[in-house]
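Hi W.,

Here's what went into the run:
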Amino acid sequence: MEPTTVLPIISLLSLVSVEYGGWALLGFLTGRGQLGEFREQFFRAGHAHAGVLLVLSLVYFLYLDRTGYSNGIQWLAGLLLLAGIIAQSGGFFLHLARGQKDRSSIGTVLTRVGALLIAVALIILAVGLL
Amino acid sequence: MSPQSRRMAGLLLILLPAVIYGGVSILTMLIGDPSYAQNDLRQDLWRAGHAHAGVLLVLSLVTLRYVDEATLSEGMKRVVRHSIPAAAILLPAGFFLSVASPDATKPNAFIYLAYVGAVSLVVGLLVLGVGLIRGRRRASEAA
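Here's what came out:
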C-alpha cells in the first residue's frame, strides 16, 4: 500500500467531519443554543485549524510523493502529520470541554504537542525535497 | 493535469483576488466603521465568509490535482470539479448576504445558501474519496 494514495483519502473523509462541526457552530452563532464567548472562541479555533491543516495535508501528500523516501518513511511522515493535525485541533475542543478561561489545560497541552508533531513532519518533508 | 482541471484552476485563480478584496473591505470596516465593530453577528458571519472563501478555493485547487488520478467516470469527475468550487462560492455567499444589512441581528433566508454549499462540498469530497479508493484497488490489482 502506497502511503501517498491512502492518506489523502483519510484527509478527504476527515474534512466531512470538519463540516459537521461547522454546521454545529453556525447553529450556535445564529441563536440555537448559546456556547458563550470562551467556548465559541475555542470552537472556532478548532474548526478553522482542522479545516486549513487538512487542506495542508492534501498538499503535503502531493509533495511527499516527490521525495525519494522509502514507503516506511513516507508512512511515518504522513501519519505524524495527521496525528499532529488531530492533536493540534482536537486540543482546542478538549480545552472548551475541560479547560477554563485564561488557564492552560490538558487541551492546550495537546494543541502544543500537535503543533510540534506537525513541525517535525514538515521538516521531514523539507529534508526529503532538498 | 487534464485540460478540464486546468481550465477550472485558471478560473479559480482569477476568483481569488475577490477574496483579497473582501479581506481588505472587512479590515477597513473593522477599523473605521463603528456600526460594524458593534455588530457581533455580522462580524462573525463576514469573518466566516472571508475565511471559507479563501480556504475552500485553496481546497478546490488542491482537489483538482487529485481528480485526474481518481478512478471515476468522466461525468463523476465533472461533478467533483464543480461541486467543491461551487461550495467555495455558495458558503461565503450565504454568510455575506444573510447579514448584508448593517443593522441585521438575525441572518435572513440567504443563510440557506451556506447549507446548500455544505451539501455540495460533502458530495464532492465523498465522490473524490471513493474515486481515490477505487484507484488504489485497481493499482494494487495491477501490481
